[in-house]
Structure to design on (1324 residues):
């Protein structure tokens, strides 16, 4: 086996050791809890890596799926706390103390897990089908997905009686029977989050090596060309988008017991773009980049905002500008360059302006064609 | 399998690019499509592969190509290449061909990694002479090699109709010769249609030549017949000379 | 070879997953009781306290000023010898206007910094987010802003007004002084306005006031064309305004633009204080009413001192407002509790809280040991031409806090 | 009938606001392919320009009229700086410009917070915009009317520049076919800069106008940017006419739903309607070039 093939697994093992052995040994309960939270973001980031890095779809609205998972979990936890037939505390406070019908099924933990896994797939599937089959892509797709995240957050805020509104849902006592105040259980949650993160990276490694992974890159670099090879690129993109949505949902679901709260602020436009920061930093198209980047950004945000309150905006802004401008391949690009096997990616390196501008700046065939005809 | 085009018209915002073209494209022959700039050659291929909307009929294996989406046309066995060779530059030659070969694979097998080169892919790499370069990213290939790779992609798909848009443009004389030979080798049993400007090349390899001008077929026949055609001479002299 | 390697990793990770599930069995089950233990260090000659305000994000507009008055109070206390002889050491965290961040930073202040008490929060969502953190860790929070009531926590002291100290007096004022027979409700779409309006509607039903409309706009919305059209068409005697932040600016500009005036259809606002007036524009607000428990114009020695000190620290143009005053007061109240208890321990402080008083700029306030709110005097004010607010009506004496409105028979939650 | 009239007026004036904020984007996004998320912060910069002008110019009657061109210049200069420092390296990666400019926007917001302070600033409206005039029995606020007129003027000015000036011809040529434009001697670099200057300048003008309606604070831009992009997307790319129709359409839709339901639900419905609309007419979205698919 060549060094190049091996290196992702070496990286994975290092990450596994750091997360499962090192971190629990050296971090305080509080810091470990924060790391658990970053792991949740990282799980969503792994999916973004697939959709954005490998698939070229700038998913600006992953907060929508993060939110679906988070709210499904939060609703279940609130109902479980309330006990059989009970009413969650906030409903008594803001509403008429009855549980709405669409909450009821979530009393079952198993059903909640099914919702967390299936609902984002359904939503992403339907949306993706509509969008990709209509060949809506590039900036249009990005803006649409962002608008959906915005709409979702507004919707949540407006439904005070059933979603807690801007307050969101919080004050959870237990997690599937385990008390959340107990530090031992919080550690368990950390291990679950870190474990799922590592497993999802492995799953990604498999996907990247599969024919699907190759096809996805082909779709990213030449969507139309793939069409003429007999494959509808919409289906390929759809699959990647659905997987990314499910991962975001899992991250969101774990986020709830770990952070102890979910609010519309965690799912809106700003939160959605925040998820991208780590992916960009780590390297969107690399295997470990998105996860490691998300962990780094989470850590940086916490420590910078502790050291210099109010300055995080500057740092996040600068991060976006510098990384995307100068290091589009993220930190992974640096590593690759050092090892001398830099992938010459047209996607990242850029192509002559005219070409890409047209590919990304779509005009209808009917408009473009006369110019073509005239130029012939 | 014969591809029959009947009264094909393509219009863009009032500009008529193809104006009632009827053609019969039969297998086993190297069919060349020539004509001055703007004659509608590429548009014709676009219309047959679902890239441009056309009216009329293009019948192939009982289906009307004009009513099908691009990927379905490909799955029916009608493949094309592009004037500017369009390959996946970041993927290797092998991966490029393997993706093209995907047409014949069951969907679920997408989830499995590829192991080595599938037999058909290896065979085609040999045919188009790219075996040595199998693991190189397609982006580093020369212009000619990219064109061969594109033709190879059609071959692994077993396309029975191949529409090639200026495959030898920008090639050296030697590469042209090789490409011509390659086209000869693959034409038996298939319909190969080549858009070309270079008359020497056309003369050397064409079985049938169709001349397009201003969206209409103005002549059809062997290369020699075409050369003698008064209307063709007028068009070419009027445009080029 | 390649497959072998990755399958080994898969095997390893599944073993790992099993191990994880196994470790889980040791943890406490739901229903067991929490055991918060404090790590507050009082052995040195300083004691740490935490300030948790949004210094970035949308709420920074308001919360920065709270941070400033808290800092001023801390400096004064330190200059005066500290609390129980120990100087206050401030740990400040940025809540970033997000409830999730408030929860995280509160945990940090309690568990990592081991502060004796935390002061801050503004929005209902930030308080709700922090509540389980303080209860779970058995720590102390002082929350300085008027809010929607219906809450009391063992671990939180509320030094702003609850509804019966602000909203209900405001309604009394409208009914008794302005003789209104109908009212229109305008608010931002979140918990405080919705809860406030729920109370207002029940009050109105019990007092023969007709509610002619109830409109909510998304937080941060600046499009009030439709809302003001509806207000105007309804023609109520007064408007009760629970809009938050930037929305006030757009609302009042639209209100004035459509020819509505304070004399014909007064607006009573519960979220506009002195510091918000310049942003909305004095011209747009002059003559409109507000309901609070403190105004900069209060004529008392304690307030003169407070205003002078605040201007000295933050410039002559700085104004003081109710939440700032309540925050300032909260630190002194905590000091009073600690000194009464002669201990920094959370339970001792809570036990000593009942009856602690402080001569605040707003007047004398007293802590209610049962519901952890404080008795405050309600003041209705009117915006004057200088952008300050003059008191036009007062409850005359402090109103006992009643967060659950138990003493009002018209109220049913 | 009165209620309907009110909704139409409110919708039109909301549409005019959308048009003002989206106009600059139609140029930079529609014609150059740059997705400038900092456009919102350019709007904010325009609003702060109005604030600063109102401090310097004693007469409130005049300050607005001075602020409008000043806002244009400030917005334009910010746009130029952004183009020259960052975007010019990124034309090949239009999708990435979204994140870069988002970062720039974050920084600008925090700068505004540090320079002007977090609390909102008041920009006094001139006396001649006080009050309202009755139109068909509906009291139309003069500020709203002013914004509708201003939006109209901006559209007219932009059209005039594109149609009748040398610069406009260069912009159109560059947009139409960059390579061809270069070969006939147009400096596409200069044209890019000019386009960006005008597009960003329009954001500045929008910012000045918005001080008449809302508050002037660091978050001013964020509340408008998503809507602005939606207008451009719905309007179809690079189509001025489409943008106008889209802005008015969305404004009216929002007004009708806000009247019938609540503001929050109206926003959600409008978002969903836009997604649905693009299903039916993704025009300008289908892009295929035939010779090469790169």
């Amino acid at each position: 086996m060549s060094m190049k093939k091996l290196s992702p697994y070496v990286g994975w093992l290092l990450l596994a050791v750091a997360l499962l052995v090192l971190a629990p040994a050296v971090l305080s309960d509080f810091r470990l809890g924060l790391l658990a939270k970053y792991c949740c973001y990282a799980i969503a980031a792994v999916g973004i890596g697939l959709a954005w890095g490998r698939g070229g779809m700038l998913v600006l609205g992953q907060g929508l799926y993060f939110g679906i998972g988070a709210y499904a979990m939060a609703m279940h936890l609130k109902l479980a706390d309330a006990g059989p037939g009970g009413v969650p505390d906030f409903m008594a406070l803001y509403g008429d103390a009855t549980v709405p019908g669409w909450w009821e099924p979530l009393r079952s933990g198993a059903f909640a897990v099914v919702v967390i896994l299936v609902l984002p797939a359904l939503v992403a599937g339907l949306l993706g089908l509509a969008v990709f089959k209509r060949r809506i892509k590039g900036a249009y797709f990005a803006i649409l997905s962002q608008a959906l995240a915005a709409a979702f957050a507004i919707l949540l805020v407006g439904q005070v009686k059933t979603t807690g509104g801007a307050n969101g849902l919080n004050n959870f006592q237990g997690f599937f029977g385990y008390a959340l105040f107990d530090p031992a259980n919080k550690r368990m949650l950390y291990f679950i989050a870190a474990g799922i993160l590592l497993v999802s990276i492995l799953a990604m490694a498999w996907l990247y090596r599969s024919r699907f992974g190759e096809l996805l890159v082909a779709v990213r670099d030449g969507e139309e060309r793939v069409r003429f090879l007999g494959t509808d690129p919409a289906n390929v993109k759809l699959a990647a988008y659905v997987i990314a949505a499910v991962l975001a949902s899992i991250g969101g679901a774990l986020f709830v017991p770990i952070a102890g709260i979910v609010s519309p602020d965690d799912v809106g436009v700003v939160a959605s773009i925040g998820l991208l920061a780590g992916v960009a930093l780590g390297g969107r198209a690399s295997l470990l980049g998105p996860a490691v980047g998300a962990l780094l950004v989470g850590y940086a945000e916490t420590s910078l905002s502790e050291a210099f309150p109010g300055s995080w905006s500057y740092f996040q802004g600068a991060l976006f500008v510098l990384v995307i401008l100068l290091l589009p391949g993220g930190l992974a690009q640096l590593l690759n360059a050092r090892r001398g096997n830099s992938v010459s990616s047209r996607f990242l390196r850029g192509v002559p302006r005219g070409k890409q501008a047209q590919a990304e700046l779509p005009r209808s065939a009917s408009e473009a064609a006369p110019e073509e005809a005239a130029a012939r | 399998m014969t591809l029959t085009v009947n009264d094909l018209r393509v219009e863009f915002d009032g500009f008529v690019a193809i104006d009632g073209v009827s053609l019969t494209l039969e297998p086993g022959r190297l069919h060349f499509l020539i004509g001055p700039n703007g004659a509608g050659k590429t548009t014709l291929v676009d219309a047959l592969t679902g890239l441009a909307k056309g009216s009329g009929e293009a019948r192939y294996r009982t289906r009307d190509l004009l009513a099908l989406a691009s990927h379905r046309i490909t799955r029916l066995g009608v493949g094309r290449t592009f004037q500017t060779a369009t390959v996946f530059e970041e993927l290797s030659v092998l991966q490029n061909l393997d993706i093209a070969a995907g047409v014949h694979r069951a969907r679920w097998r997408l989830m499995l990694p590829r192991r080595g080169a599938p037999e058909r892919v290896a065979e085609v790499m040999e045919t188009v002479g790219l075996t040595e370069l199998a693991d190189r990213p397609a982006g580093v290939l020369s212009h000619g090699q990219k064109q061969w790779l594109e033709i190879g992609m059609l071959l692994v798909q077993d396309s029975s109709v191949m529409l090639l848009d200026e495959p030898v443009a920008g090639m050296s004389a030697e590469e042209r010769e090789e490409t011509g030979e390659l086209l000869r080798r693959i034409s038996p049993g298939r319909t190969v249609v080549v858009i070309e400007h270079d008359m020497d090349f056309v003369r050397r390899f064409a079985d049938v030549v169709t001349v397009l001008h201003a969206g209409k077929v103005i002549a059809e026949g062997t290369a020699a017949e075409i050369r003698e055609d008064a209307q063709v001479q007028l068009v070419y002299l009027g445009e080029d000379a | 070879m390649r497959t072998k390697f990755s399958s080994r990793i898969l095997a390893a990770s599944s073993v790992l997953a099993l191990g994880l599930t196994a470790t889980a069995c040791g943890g406490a089950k739901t229903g067991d009781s929490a055991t918060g233990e404090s790590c507050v260090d009082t052995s040195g000659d300083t004691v740490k306290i935490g300030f948790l305000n949004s210094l970035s994000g949308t709420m920074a507009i308001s919360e920065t000023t709270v941070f400033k008055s808290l800092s001023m109070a801390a400096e004064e206390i330190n200059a005066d010898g500290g609390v129980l002889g120990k100087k206050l050491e401030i740990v400040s965290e940025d809540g970033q206007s997000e409830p999730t961040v408030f929860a995280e930073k509160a945990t940090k202040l309690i568990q990592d910094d081991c502060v004796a008490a935390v002061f801050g929060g503004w929005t209902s969502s930030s308080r709700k987010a922090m509540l389980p953190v303080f209860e779970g860790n058995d720590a102390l929070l002082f929350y300085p802003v008027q809010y929607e009531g219906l809450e009391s926590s063992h671990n939180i002291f509320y030094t702003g007004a609850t509804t019966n100290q602000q909203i209900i007096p405001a309604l009394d004022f409208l009914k008794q002084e302005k003789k209104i027979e109908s009212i229109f409700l305008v608010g931002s779409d979140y918990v405080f306005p919705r809860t406030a309006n729920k109370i207002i509607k029940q009050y109105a039903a019990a007092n023969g006031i007709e509610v002619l409309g109830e409109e909510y706009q998304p937080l941060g919305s600046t499009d009030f064309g439709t809302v003001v059209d509806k207000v105007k068409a309804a023609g109520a005697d007064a408007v009760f305004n629970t809009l938050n932040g930037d929305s006030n600016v757009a609302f009042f500009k639209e209100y004035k633009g459509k020819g509505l005036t304070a004399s014909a259809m007064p607006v009573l606002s519960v979220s506009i204080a002195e510091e918000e007036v310049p942003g909305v524009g004095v011209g747009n607000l002059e003559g409109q009413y507000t309901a609070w428990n403190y105004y900069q114009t209060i004529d008392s020695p304690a307030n003169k001192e407070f205003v002078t000190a605040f201007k000295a620290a933050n410039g002559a143009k700085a104004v003081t407002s109710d939440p700032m005053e309540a925050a300032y007061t909260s630190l002194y109240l905590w000091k009073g509790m600690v000194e009464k208890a002669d201990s920094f321990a959370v339970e001792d402080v809570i036990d000593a809280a009942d009856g602690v008083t402080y001569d605040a700029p707003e007047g004398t306030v007293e802590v209610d040991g049962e519901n952890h709110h404080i008795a405050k005097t309600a003041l209705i004010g009117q915006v004057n031409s200088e952008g300050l607010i003059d008191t036009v009506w007062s409850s005359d004496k402090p109103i006992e806090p009643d967060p659950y409105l138990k003493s009002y028979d018209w109220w049913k939650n | 009938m009165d209620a309907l009239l009110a909704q139409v007026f409110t919708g039109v004036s909301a549409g005019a606001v959308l048009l003002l904020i989206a106009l600059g984007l139609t140029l930079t996004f529609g014609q150059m392919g740059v997705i400038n998320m900092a456009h919102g912060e350019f709007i904010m910069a325009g609003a702060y320009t109005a604030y600063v002008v109102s401090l310097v110019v004693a007469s409130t009657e005049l300050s607005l009229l001075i602020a409008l061109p000043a806002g244009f210049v400030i917005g334009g200069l910010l746009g130029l700086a952004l183009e020259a420092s960052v975007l010019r390296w990124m034309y090949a990666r239009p999708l990435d410009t979204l994140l870069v400019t988002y970062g720039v926007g974050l920084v600008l917001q925090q700068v505004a917070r540090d320079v002007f302070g977090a609390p909102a600033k008041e920009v006094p409206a001139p006396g001649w915009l006080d009050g309202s005039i009755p139109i068909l029995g509906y009291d139309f606020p003069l500020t709203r009317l002013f914004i509708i007129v201003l939006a109209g003027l901006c559209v007219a000015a932009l059209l005039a520049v594109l149609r009748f000036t040398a610069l406009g011809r260069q912009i159109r040529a560059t947009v139409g076919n960059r390579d061809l434009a270069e070969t006939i001697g147009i400096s596409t670099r200069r044209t890019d800069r000019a386009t960006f200057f005008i597009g960003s300048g329009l954001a500045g003008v929008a910012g000045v106008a918005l001080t008449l309606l809302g508050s002037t604070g660091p978050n001013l831009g964020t509340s408008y940017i998503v809507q602005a992009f939606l207008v451009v997307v719905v309007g179809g790319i690079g189509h001025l006419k489409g943008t106008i129709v889209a802005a008015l359409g969305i404004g009216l839709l929002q007004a009708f739903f806000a009247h019938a339901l609540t503001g929050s639900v109206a926003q959600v419905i409008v978002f969903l309607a836009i997604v649905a609309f693009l299903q039916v007419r993704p025009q300008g979205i289908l892009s295929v070039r035939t010779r090469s698919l790169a």
